[in-house]
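Hi R.,

Here are the chain sequences for the assembly we discussed:
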Amino acid sequence: MKYIDEYRNAGLARKLVDEIHRVTTRPWALMEVCGGQTHTLVKQGIDEALPPGVRMIHGPGCPVCVTPLEQIDKALVIAARPDVIFTSYGDMLRVPGSSTDLLSLKARGADVRIVYSPLDAVRIAAANPDRQVVFFAIGFETTAPANAMAIRQAARLGLGNFSVLVSHVLVPPAMCAILESPTNQVQAFLAAGHVCAVMGWTEYEPIAERYHVPIVVTGFEPLDLLEGILMAIRQLEQGRAEVENQYARAVKREGNREAQDTIFRVFDVGDRKWRGIGMIPASGYHLRPEYARFDAEARFDVGMITTAEHPACIAGEILQGTKTPLECTAYGVLCSPQKPLGAPMVSAEGVCSAYHAAGRGLAAPGAVPLYELKRPVGEAMK
Amino acid sequence: MCLGIPGKVVEIRDDGPLRMARVDFGGVRKEACLVYVPEVQLGDYVIVHVGFAISQLDEEEAMRTLEMLRAIDAEGVAMELGSMGGAAAPATRGSA
Amino acid sequence: MSDRRVAVDPFGGFAEEPAGKPDPANLACPAPIPERARVLLGHGSGGQLSAALMRDVIAPALAAVTPGGPLNDAAVVEVAGARLAFTTDSFVVSPLEFPGGDIGELAVNGTVNDLAMMGAQPVALSLAYVIEEGLPIEDLRRVTESVARAAGRAGVRIVTGDTKVVGRGAADALFVNTAGIGLVAPGVSVAADRAAIGDAVLLSGPIGLHGIAIMSVREGLDFEVEIASDTQPLNGLVAAIVAACPDVHVLRDPTRGGLASALNEIAAASGAGIELREETIPIPGPVHAACEMLGLDPLHVANEGKLVAIVPASSAEAVLAAMRAVPEGAEAVEIGCVVADHPSMVTMRTIVGSQRIVDMLVGEQLPRIC
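And here is the predicted structure of the full complex:
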């Protein structure tokens, strides 16, 4: 594929790894805040190819993982209603709520449908005027323009049966929360390339300056990540703290103005709770009053939601990067992709699932032993 | 939120309320909404996320990135990058 | 054999769903009880959930009347001195017709291939339909003609069958079951646990075609792609392999769960490790592109016309040549080897030179956006 395969060239990858080793003279801790980048780092073993003192701390970059438990539980209450067609991106289907998940509800007869684009949810609403269609609008800033446009389209079409359950989260406040933490060890950030394609990187300049941390806007392919890491380490070695752009082919400093305009016509910035982390002020999007009628939380009575995280799940510490899955007592034992206790094990780019799929820290393949064939199947039966 | 992949715009439909396109991702074609990349024309590359083009891919920057990577090795062994430079020139674009 | 029982579904309303309580009236092994008390779509995907369903529910229940191992896709039964391979499979694909084939063709090829993976040449098939009321007769005729064409191509006869009709909503248009018998030649002993250290792992051609062809017409995803399902009978290819190397150790068609799941099953059964080289695995451009778009791993995508052959290293060249001499194996390649390291695990070398573990598919493949 053009513009993907070139960034997976093995020869260039090894050159970058060598160069990183050459310029690194001291231990450094870097953080990426993007699930897609986490996934590539772990799957390609990039974090293990770095010099011994260089650590990639995986940040809360998986929007699936940080969607507050309350929102998941509200989604489940709404999806269970017989008059509702509940539409969602595929990522959310296996995320555990307090007691169940969307996929299990679907198995029990709820009309839960995966959509690829929020416009598909609008189409479903237009095609099913006698049903309520609810769309689970999650994501970082990258997905906000699409979600916003879907809401505007629904308004334009006058779809009274369409509503959204909003759970957008923003990256810069999360970075600040991490940097403000007394236990913070992060010295440089890789900023999420597609978040910045939408929002630009002007919001990161005051962060780099205030906390004296290099921030490198980075893409998602192995060469992008290696180059982003190299640029960050060069800055650290030189004592610089600037915002640089590795992902120049897709990101400009001002970002995408049209997308930003639409986001702010539909959403306001507000406080948001992050699963496993807690409340971060001004870290999410909420519907503006003009679009409040599309708010599924207002339209449906979701009743009292009492959330209950599994006691053994340390997702909070994982998401803040203060612990790795290898330090979790449940990892691989009680908690595995097929029986997840928390979101980072479910999402394809959650840290725990990335580690598990790569077999890190596991003695046997996966947590579910496969059946043993004790006798060759070709043997004659008695 | 990351899964945005680059594809080439092969068809544009301006007739509906939203500017829509058919985008070719290495042999797979899917529709995408161009409302956020109004300068994009046929033949341009875009990054598509959940059915919306969020950015136009700057092909000159793409070349520059790869050339810089090649230049890292002082011994200058040229790496084979496949069809990067050899493809047909893209249709004329607007601003980079 | 342990007598594990799955908890009876205790679910009332959504709010009080517990994790699954053991039935105190029955003996229960104090092993982890499956979290969900209902069958999920993922249980049919060919990955870890499917294996767990077999191991925890089906095999124990049938313990008294099975030969004392798990039930495989096919089995070999000795009848009057001859070794008969016997298999059955059900086909529930939706839509019934997809780029490159239909459920009829799939049903014949699938069963022919299960027999072939035992090293057997197919002799006869049965054909059973469960038809949903309202299915257009034309669809039924087209599917059945497709069955006939596929059977002719594979050189196998349909000798018996059954037809049932159920009410609207009780079947997804059409469910097809085929069962088949085949003859295993003397000296041939193909089994999942026969992979030996040092063996070569061969793949008959590019992967991911069937699964992506199906996904492309799946509701909600629909994308255009010039990919057709690779469904085809493999008995001719197997005959060529066996002729070149009667001592072929393992044959497996990587259907549900993809290449990764098939290799993991073989590694686990044989108690050996398998190492793959990523650059040798043939993935067609459009499959690669579709997987990127949907966030899928090509190694987990289903195939319906490919096989993995594990043969002694000394026979690898001869087998590859024999495979490439028939159309179904024209693009056969060596993709890895069986090793003593990391027994039961499958690994692959990444582009930065690290080894990564290739896991089995968990549950259903869901497209993702992150």
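Residues 137-154 of chain C form the longest helix (18 residues). The domain at 192-357 of chain C is CATH 3.90.650.10 (Phosphoribosyl-aminoimidazole Synthetase; Chain A, domain 2).

Let me know if anything looks off.

Best,
T.
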